[in-house]
Amino acid sequence: MIGYRKKSFFQAHALFAKIRENLDDLKALRELQIHLAREIIRTERAIRALKAETNSATIDERRRSFLQRRIQGHRFSAYIWRSFGDAVAFTYLDKFALKHTYYQTGQKRPKADAGFLSGKDGLQHELGLLFSALDHNVPAILTDLTNTIRHGDICLMGASDPYLMEVKAAPSRNPRARKQKDSLDILRNFYETDASSQLWGNPDLRREALTDPEVSYSSQLNECIDAALKTGFASVSPENGLTYYVVRSDTRVPDPVAQFRDARAPWVFIWNDPLERLSWMPYLPPMASIVNPEHLWAMLRGIISIAIVIDMVGFEEIVAELGFEGRFDPQEPSHPLLISFGSNAGCMWISQDMLGRVGMECVSP
Length: 365
Description:
Layout: H1 6-21, H2 26-54, H3 61-92, H4 95-98, H5 123-135, E1 140-142, E2 154-156, E3 163-165, H6 175-193, E4 195-196, E5 205-206, H7 218-231, E6 233-239, E7 242-248, E8 266-270, H8 272-276, H9 293-300, E9 304-311, H10 312-321, E10 325-328, E11 337-340, E12 347-350, H11 352-355, H12 357-360
Antiparallel strand pairs: 1-2, 2-3, 4-5, 6-7, 7-9, 8-9, 10-11, 11-12
Helix pairs in contact: 1-2, 1-3, 2-3
Protein backbone atom coordinates (compact mmCIF):
# COMPACT_ATOMS: atom_id res chain seq x y z
CA MET A 1 0.00 0.00 0.00
CA ILE A 2 2.99 2.28 0.42
CA GLY A 3 3.19 2.32 -3.39
CA TYR A 4 0.07 4.50 -3.52
CA ARG A 5 1.64 7.08 -1.18
CA LYS A 6 4.80 7.96 -3.11
CA LYS A 7 4.19 11.71 -3.07
CA SER A 8 3.54 11.61 0.67
CA PHE A 9 6.66 9.48 1.17
CA PHE A 10 8.84 12.05 -0.57
CA GLN A 11 7.24 14.83 1.47
CA ALA A 12 8.17 12.98 4.67
CA HIS A 13 11.71 12.42 3.42
CA ALA A 14 12.11 16.11 2.51
CA LEU A 15 10.99 17.18 6.00
CA PHE A 16 13.37 14.67 7.60
CA ALA A 17 16.21 16.00 5.44
CA LYS A 18 15.48 19.53 6.71
CA ILE A 19 15.65 18.30 10.29
CA ARG A 20 18.98 16.53 9.70
CA GLU A 21 20.43 19.70 8.26
CA ASN A 22 19.25 21.82 11.18
CA LEU A 23 18.23 20.22 14.48
CA ASP A 24 16.86 23.59 15.59
CA ASP A 25 14.24 23.53 12.83
CA LEU A 26 11.39 22.63 15.16
CA LYS A 27 8.86 23.84 12.61
CA ALA A 28 9.91 20.99 10.30
CA LEU A 29 9.87 18.61 13.28
CA ARG A 30 6.27 19.62 14.02
CA GLU A 31 5.21 19.37 10.36
CA LEU A 32 6.77 15.93 9.96
CA GLN A 33 4.99 14.56 13.01
CA ILE A 34 1.63 15.90 11.86
CA HIS A 35 2.31 14.38 8.44
CA LEU A 36 3.23 10.98 9.93
CA ALA A 37 0.23 10.97 12.27
CA ARG A 38 -2.15 11.59 9.38
CA GLU A 39 -0.61 8.81 7.30
CA ILE A 40 -0.64 6.32 10.19
CA ILE A 41 -4.27 7.10 10.98
CA ARG A 42 -5.09 6.64 7.29
CA THR A 43 -3.61 3.11 7.38
CA GLU A 44 -5.44 2.28 10.61
CA ARG A 45 -8.81 3.26 9.16
CA ALA A 46 -8.13 1.06 6.15
CA ILE A 47 -7.09 -1.86 8.37
CA ARG A 48 -10.27 -1.56 10.46
CA ALA A 49 -12.46 -1.60 7.35
CA LEU A 50 -10.62 -4.57 5.86
CA LYS A 51 -10.77 -6.51 9.14
CA ALA A 52 -14.50 -5.93 9.35
CA GLU A 53 -14.96 -7.44 5.89
CA THR A 54 -12.54 -10.29 6.68
CA ASN A 55 -14.65 -11.30 9.68
CA SER A 56 -17.77 -11.54 7.56
CA ALA A 57 -19.11 -15.04 7.18
CA THR A 58 -20.27 -14.38 3.63
CA ILE A 59 -16.86 -14.10 1.92
CA ASP A 60 -14.92 -17.03 0.51
CA GLU A 61 -11.35 -18.00 1.39
CA ARG A 62 -9.93 -16.48 -1.78
CA ARG A 63 -11.39 -13.09 -0.90
CA ARG A 64 -10.31 -13.44 2.73
CA SER A 65 -6.74 -14.21 1.65
CA PHE A 66 -6.78 -11.13 -0.60
CA LEU A 67 -8.00 -8.93 2.25
CA GLN A 68 -5.36 -10.27 4.60
CA ARG A 69 -2.63 -9.37 2.10
CA ARG A 70 -4.02 -5.86 1.88
CA ILE A 71 -4.06 -5.61 5.67
CA GLN A 72 -0.43 -6.65 5.75
CA GLY A 73 0.34 -4.03 3.11
CA HIS A 74 -1.22 -1.31 5.27
CA ARG A 75 0.70 -2.55 8.30
CA PHE A 76 3.89 -2.27 6.28
CA SER A 77 2.95 1.29 5.35
CA ALA A 78 2.37 2.22 9.00
CA TYR A 79 5.71 0.63 9.85
CA ILE A 80 7.50 2.75 7.23
CA TRP A 81 5.88 5.96 8.49
CA ARG A 82 6.97 5.11 12.02
CA SER A 83 10.46 4.36 10.70
CA PHE A 84 10.67 8.05 9.80
CA GLY A 85 9.85 8.73 13.45
CA ASP A 86 12.66 6.38 14.44
CA ALA A 87 15.04 8.23 12.13
CA VAL A 88 14.15 11.50 13.86
CA ALA A 89 14.77 10.01 17.31
CA PHE A 90 18.13 8.55 16.24
CA THR A 91 19.09 11.92 14.79
CA TYR A 92 18.61 13.76 18.10
CA LEU A 93 19.47 11.04 20.62
CA ASP A 94 22.37 8.72 21.36
CA LYS A 95 21.72 5.42 19.57
CA PHE A 96 22.88 3.30 22.49
CA ALA A 97 20.67 5.16 24.94
CA LEU A 98 17.70 4.96 22.61
CA LYS A 99 17.75 1.18 22.24
CA HIS A 100 16.80 0.74 25.91
CA THR A 101 13.41 2.25 25.15
CA TYR A 102 12.61 -0.71 22.88
CA TYR A 103 12.91 -3.39 25.56
CA GLN A 104 10.97 -4.23 28.66
CA THR A 105 12.66 -3.11 31.86
CA GLY A 106 12.15 -6.42 33.66
CA GLN A 107 13.79 -8.52 30.95
CA LYS A 108 15.57 -7.83 27.70
CA ARG A 109 12.69 -8.65 25.43
CA PRO A 110 10.90 -6.26 23.08
CA LYS A 111 8.09 -4.39 24.77
CA ALA A 112 4.72 -4.63 23.05
CA ASP A 113 3.88 -1.63 20.91
CA ALA A 114 1.10 0.73 21.89
CA GLY A 115 -1.30 -0.37 19.16
CA PHE A 116 -3.40 1.98 17.06
CA LEU A 117 -2.87 5.73 17.26
CA SER A 118 -6.37 6.65 16.14
CA GLY A 119 -9.06 6.50 18.80
CA LYS A 120 -6.47 6.45 21.57
CA ASP A 121 -7.62 7.87 24.88
CA GLY A 122 -5.59 10.89 25.83
CA LEU A 123 -4.19 11.55 22.35
CA GLN A 124 -5.29 15.18 22.49
CA HIS A 125 -3.46 15.63 25.80
CA GLU A 126 -0.33 14.05 24.31
CA LEU A 127 -0.45 16.34 21.30
CA GLY A 128 -0.98 19.32 23.59
CA LEU A 129 2.17 18.49 25.57
CA LEU A 130 4.12 17.77 22.36
CA PHE A 131 3.24 21.12 20.83
CA SER A 132 3.92 22.90 24.13
CA ALA A 133 7.45 21.42 24.23
CA LEU A 134 8.09 22.48 20.63
CA ASP A 135 6.72 25.97 21.34
CA HIS A 136 9.25 26.23 24.19
CA ASN A 137 12.10 25.24 21.82
CA VAL A 138 12.45 21.72 23.22
CA PRO A 139 12.66 19.04 20.51
CA ALA A 140 10.16 16.30 21.28
CA ILE A 141 8.42 13.42 19.56
CA LEU A 142 5.23 11.49 20.10
CA THR A 143 6.43 7.96 20.90
CA ASP A 144 3.51 6.40 18.99
CA LEU A 145 5.08 7.83 15.83
CA THR A 146 8.06 5.49 16.27
CA ASN A 147 8.63 1.74 16.17
CA THR A 148 11.48 1.83 18.69
CA ILE A 149 10.35 3.98 21.64
CA ARG A 150 7.89 1.84 23.59
CA HIS A 151 7.90 3.57 26.97
CA GLY A 152 6.05 6.78 27.72
CA ASP A 153 3.90 8.94 25.47
CA ILE A 154 6.24 11.87 24.79
CA CYS A 155 10.02 11.78 24.41
CA LEU A 156 11.94 15.00 24.97
CA MET A 157 15.09 15.07 22.84
CA GLY A 158 16.99 18.06 24.14
CA ALA A 159 19.89 15.94 25.45
CA SER A 160 21.66 12.78 24.29
CA ASP A 161 19.50 10.58 26.55
CA PRO A 162 15.75 10.34 25.95
CA TYR A 163 13.52 11.92 28.58
CA LEU A 164 10.30 9.92 28.61
CA MET A 165 6.99 11.28 29.88
CA GLU A 166 3.69 9.54 30.52
CA VAL A 167 0.64 11.69 29.82
CA LYS A 168 -2.54 11.07 31.81
CA ALA A 169 -5.79 12.95 31.36
CA ALA A 170 -6.60 12.15 34.99
CA PRO A 171 -4.72 10.55 37.92
CA SER A 172 -4.73 6.76 37.80
CA ARG A 173 -3.74 4.19 40.38
CA ASN A 174 -4.51 1.01 38.49
CA PRO A 175 -1.80 -1.70 38.23
CA ARG A 176 -1.02 -0.87 34.59
CA ALA A 177 -0.39 2.79 35.41
CA ARG A 178 1.85 1.83 38.35
CA LYS A 179 3.82 -0.56 36.16
CA GLN A 180 4.32 2.14 33.53
CA LYS A 181 5.55 4.56 36.19
CA ASP A 182 7.92 1.97 37.64
CA SER A 183 9.40 1.28 34.21
CA LEU A 184 9.94 4.97 33.53
CA ASP A 185 11.57 5.37 36.95
CA ILE A 186 13.96 2.49 36.22
CA LEU A 187 14.96 3.95 32.85
CA ARG A 188 15.26 7.49 34.20
CA ASN A 189 17.49 6.34 37.05
CA PHE A 190 19.68 4.41 34.60
CA TYR A 191 20.08 7.43 32.35
CA GLU A 192 20.89 9.71 35.27
CA THR A 193 23.35 7.44 37.08
CA ASP A 194 24.74 5.25 34.24
CA ALA A 195 23.96 2.20 36.38
CA SER A 196 21.02 0.07 37.46
CA SER A 197 20.30 -2.78 39.82
CA GLN A 198 16.87 -3.43 38.27
CA LEU A 199 17.07 -3.07 34.50
CA TRP A 200 16.61 -6.45 32.72
CA GLY A 201 16.98 -8.22 36.07
CA ASN A 202 20.70 -7.43 36.15
CA PRO A 203 21.86 -6.50 39.68
CA ASP A 204 24.94 -4.64 38.40
CA LEU A 205 24.33 -3.10 35.00
CA ARG A 206 26.59 -0.21 34.03
CA ARG A 207 27.29 1.82 30.93
CA GLU A 208 30.32 3.73 29.75
CA ALA A 209 30.79 6.07 26.81
CA LEU A 210 32.75 4.86 23.79
CA THR A 211 36.12 6.58 23.54
CA ASP A 212 36.88 5.85 19.88
CA PRO A 213 34.96 7.68 17.12
CA GLU A 214 32.63 5.49 15.08
CA VAL A 215 33.60 4.75 11.48
CA SER A 216 30.65 4.66 9.07
CA TYR A 217 30.58 3.35 5.51
CA SER A 218 27.11 4.65 4.62
CA SER A 219 28.56 6.80 1.81
CA GLN A 220 30.03 3.66 0.21
CA LEU A 221 26.64 1.96 0.44
CA ASN A 222 24.95 4.93 -1.22
CA GLU A 223 27.48 4.85 -4.07
CA CYS A 224 26.91 1.10 -4.44
CA ILE A 225 23.13 1.59 -4.69
CA ASP A 226 23.59 4.29 -7.32
CA ALA A 227 25.82 2.01 -9.39
CA ALA A 228 23.43 -0.96 -9.10
CA LEU A 229 20.45 1.08 -10.26
CA LYS A 230 22.42 2.02 -13.38
CA THR A 231 24.10 -1.32 -14.17
CA GLY A 232 21.96 -3.92 -12.39
CA PHE A 233 24.54 -5.14 -9.90
CA ALA A 234 27.29 -3.56 -7.79
CA SER A 235 29.48 -4.45 -4.83
CA VAL A 236 32.03 -2.67 -2.67
CA SER A 237 34.35 -3.81 0.12
CA PRO A 238 35.00 -0.93 2.53
CA GLU A 239 37.54 -3.09 4.40
CA ASN A 240 38.72 -6.68 4.58
CA GLY A 241 35.98 -9.06 5.63
CA LEU A 242 33.13 -6.66 4.83
CA THR A 243 31.30 -6.42 1.50
CA TYR A 244 28.16 -4.61 0.37
CA TYR A 245 26.10 -6.04 -2.52
CA VAL A 246 23.19 -4.34 -4.30
CA VAL A 247 21.23 -6.04 -7.07
CA ARG A 248 18.37 -4.68 -9.16
CA SER A 249 15.32 -6.97 -9.28
CA ASP A 250 15.38 -7.25 -13.06
CA THR A 251 19.03 -8.34 -13.07
CA ARG A 252 20.07 -11.96 -12.92
CA VAL A 253 23.20 -12.58 -10.88
CA PRO A 254 24.87 -15.72 -12.35
CA ASP A 255 25.76 -17.34 -9.04
CA PRO A 256 24.73 -15.46 -5.87
CA VAL A 257 26.63 -17.88 -3.65
CA ALA A 258 29.83 -17.27 -5.59
CA GLN A 259 29.54 -13.59 -4.73
CA PHE A 260 30.24 -14.52 -1.09
CA ARG A 261 33.18 -16.84 -1.82
CA ASP A 262 35.74 -14.48 -0.29
CA ALA A 263 34.04 -14.72 3.10
CA ARG A 264 35.40 -17.76 4.95
CA ALA A 265 32.45 -17.77 7.34
CA PRO A 266 29.81 -15.41 5.91
CA TRP A 267 27.25 -13.68 8.12
CA VAL A 268 24.70 -12.24 5.69
CA PHE A 269 22.31 -9.35 6.33
CA ILE A 270 19.60 -8.88 3.69
CA TRP A 271 18.17 -5.44 4.40
CA ASN A 272 14.87 -6.17 2.66
CA ASP A 273 14.06 -9.03 5.06
CA PRO A 274 13.73 -7.16 8.40
CA LEU A 275 11.71 -4.48 6.63
CA GLU A 276 9.26 -7.07 5.30
CA ARG A 277 9.10 -8.70 8.75
CA LEU A 278 8.68 -5.29 10.44
CA SER A 279 11.60 -6.15 12.71
CA TRP A 280 14.38 -3.64 11.98
CA MET A 281 14.41 -2.31 15.57
CA PRO A 282 16.35 -1.27 17.54
CA TYR A 283 18.94 -0.46 14.87
CA LEU A 284 19.42 2.83 13.06
CA PRO A 285 16.61 2.83 10.46
CA PRO A 286 17.47 2.79 6.74
CA MET A 287 16.18 6.38 6.36
CA ALA A 288 19.25 7.48 8.30
CA SER A 289 21.69 5.50 6.12
CA ILE A 290 20.26 5.83 2.60
CA VAL A 291 20.42 9.52 1.74
CA ASN A 292 18.78 9.60 -1.69
CA PRO A 293 14.98 9.25 -1.39
CA GLU A 294 14.81 7.56 -4.81
CA HIS A 295 17.26 4.91 -3.58
CA LEU A 296 15.27 4.35 -0.40
CA TRP A 297 12.05 4.11 -2.38
CA ALA A 298 13.68 1.55 -4.66
CA MET A 299 14.49 -0.70 -1.72
CA LEU A 300 11.05 -0.32 -0.11
CA ARG A 301 9.37 -1.21 -3.41
CA GLY A 302 11.63 -4.22 -3.99
CA ILE A 303 13.34 -2.68 -7.01
CA ILE A 304 16.71 -3.37 -5.40
CA SER A 305 17.94 -5.78 -2.75
CA ILE A 306 20.77 -4.95 -0.38
CA ALA A 307 23.03 -7.57 1.22
CA ILE A 308 25.83 -6.88 3.66
CA VAL A 309 28.20 -9.79 4.17
CA ILE A 310 30.57 -10.01 7.14
CA ASP A 311 33.36 -12.54 7.40
CA MET A 312 32.98 -13.84 10.95
CA VAL A 313 36.63 -14.93 10.97
CA GLY A 314 37.45 -11.26 10.52
CA PHE A 315 36.09 -10.54 14.00
CA GLU A 316 38.54 -13.07 15.42
CA GLU A 317 41.41 -11.47 13.50
CA ILE A 318 40.54 -8.03 14.85
CA VAL A 319 40.68 -9.43 18.38
CA ALA A 320 44.05 -11.06 17.59
CA GLU A 321 45.40 -7.72 16.36
CA LEU A 322 44.56 -6.28 19.78
CA GLY A 323 46.62 -9.01 21.43
CA PHE A 324 43.84 -11.29 22.63
CA GLU A 325 42.13 -14.47 21.49
CA GLY A 326 38.72 -14.34 19.83
CA ARG A 327 36.29 -17.08 18.92
CA PHE A 328 33.08 -16.50 16.98
CA ASP A 329 30.37 -19.07 17.64
CA PRO A 330 27.36 -18.64 15.32
CA GLN A 331 25.43 -21.19 17.40
CA GLU A 332 25.49 -18.82 20.37
CA PRO A 333 22.30 -16.79 19.84
CA SER A 334 22.87 -13.80 22.11
CA HIS A 335 26.64 -13.30 22.58
CA PRO A 336 28.48 -15.06 19.74
CA LEU A 337 31.93 -13.47 20.08
CA LEU A 338 34.11 -14.68 22.96
CA ILE A 339 37.24 -12.67 23.78
CA SER A 340 39.82 -14.31 26.08
CA PHE A 341 42.42 -12.08 27.74
CA GLY A 342 44.88 -14.88 28.52
CA SER A 343 45.33 -17.40 31.31
CA ASN A 344 43.76 -16.25 34.57
CA ALA A 345 42.92 -12.86 33.01
CA GLY A 346 39.25 -13.52 32.33
CA CYS A 347 37.14 -13.07 29.24
CA MET A 348 34.18 -11.19 27.82
CA TRP A 349 31.39 -11.79 25.32
CA ILE A 350 30.17 -9.35 22.69
CA SER A 351 26.43 -9.41 22.01
CA GLN A 352 24.81 -10.16 18.70
CA ASP A 353 23.00 -6.82 19.01
CA MET A 354 26.30 -4.97 19.06
CA LEU A 355 27.95 -7.01 16.30
CA GLY A 356 24.81 -6.77 14.17
CA ARG A 357 25.34 -3.03 13.89
CA VAL A 358 28.05 -3.81 11.32
CA GLY A 359 25.41 -5.35 9.07
CA MET A 360 22.51 -3.02 9.90
CA GLU A 361 24.11 0.40 10.45
CA CYS A 362 27.05 0.43 8.01
CA VAL A 363 29.65 0.72 10.78
CA SER A 364 33.15 -0.67 10.64
CA PRO A 365 33.79 -4.00 12.38
